[in-house]
Amino acid sequence: MPRGMNITSYANQYVLDLVAYQPGKPIEETARELGMAPEQIVKLASNENSLGPSPKAVQAMVKAASHAHIYPDGASFDLRSRIAKDFGVSFEQTVTGSGSSEIIELLCHAFMHPGKEIIAAKHSFSMYPIMCKLFGATYVEVENKPDWSHDLMGMLKAITPQTRLIFITNPTNPVGTMVFQEEMDAFMAQVPEHVVVAFDEAYIDFADVKPDTAKYLHQGKNVIIMRTFSKAYGLAGVRAGYAVSTPEIADMLNKARSPFNLNCIAQAAALAALDDREHVERSVEMVRAGREQYYRTFDSWGIGYIRSQANFILAKVGKGREVFDKALAQGVILRQMDGYGLPEYIRITVGTERENARCLEVLAGILGK
């Protein structure tokens, strides 16, 4: 190696330029730093489900753990068969991943390389630009509409011959707004054939109204619908996600994924979770009640916020990083939004009534309310 050079001189520049994904601060780390017990920490940073996983899923995981010495079913046959049945599609139209974030990566494996483009809304899930840049492709952001929802007509205008993927995050993260059926239908009627529309529906269970995106599959459109077990199902720790798409797109993603990408415990947990709708309904009820809990308080304080269709709320508190740091010092972990270009905001996961009350108590002290 020539003098004055190191191994990074030979690496892909677009990898060196990446800013790594920043997860919410862990409970254990915060407890150690503050000298507190982990159970004293309230984490409302990562949009996790405070009710935890379904008891049925826990039982399934325990049972599956006894077979952990055996490789899992590489095709995730039982889980994919159930997903196919629920969506009314063929088994060949399904894909499973280590969270829906792996599905995003698989899409980039299939369609992205230098010269190609991804279109997404501004203030969207941070994994979109990370994955796009990782493959040396171009990331195109389209400003949101005044109500903070996706500007689908603006996205149409941004399409070029190099565009391959458009991400529609519904409800969107970190904003919480939605695109509804009529606008979506008008958009889909005009998307050219060389573009794949990826509907990221990680938070769809919490929405008051759920647009029908599966119908575009039945119409033969180039779409993919991504879901996760990390939110309403309370399985963020096992990393399980899935997608349904056309047979051609699903085949590409299944070729691109690593062998055994969904472990046996994740497969068992996800399948059992799908059978416990009561747990999902309790989780959704908790979130809807919690959103109202925050709305009432923020209204009384005169604090701005965005009404959310997801399990979090974006609140305008002024100096978001400062509020985040002061809340953290009191054992409440929130999400500061500098990385999303929203420095005046914090994102608050809606938790249990007790967790929400503790968060509001801390915020009241910080904001002088």
Q: How is this fold's topology laid out?
A:
Blueprint: H1 13-16, H2 27-34, E1 42-43, H3 55-65, H4 77-87, E2 94-97, H5 100-111, E3 117-121, H6 127-134, E4 138-142, H7 152-158, E5 163-169, H8 181-188, E6 196-200, H9 214-218, E7 223-228, E8 241-245, H10 247-256, H11 264-274, H12 277-301, E9 304-306, E10 312-316, H13 320-329, E11 332-333, E12 335-336, E13 345-349, H14 353-367
Parallel strand pairs: 1-11, 3-4, 3-5, 5-6, 6-7
Antiparallel strand pairs: 2-8, 7-8, 9-10, 10-13, 12-13
What does this molecule look like?
The protein is an alpha/beta fold. The protein folds into two domains: 7-40 and 278-367, Alpha-Beta Complex (Aspartate Aminotransferase, domain 1); 55-274, Type I PLP-dependent aspartate aminotransferase-like (Major domain) (Aspartate Aminotransferase, domain 2). It is built from 14 helices and 13 strands. The strands form three sheets. Strands 2-8-7-6-5-3-4 form a seven-stranded mixed β-sheet, sandwiched between helices. Strands 9-10-13-12 form a four-stranded antiparallel β-sheet, with helices on one face. Strands 1-11 form a two-stranded parallel sheet. Helix 3 (55-65) runs antiparallel to helix 11. The termini are far apart.
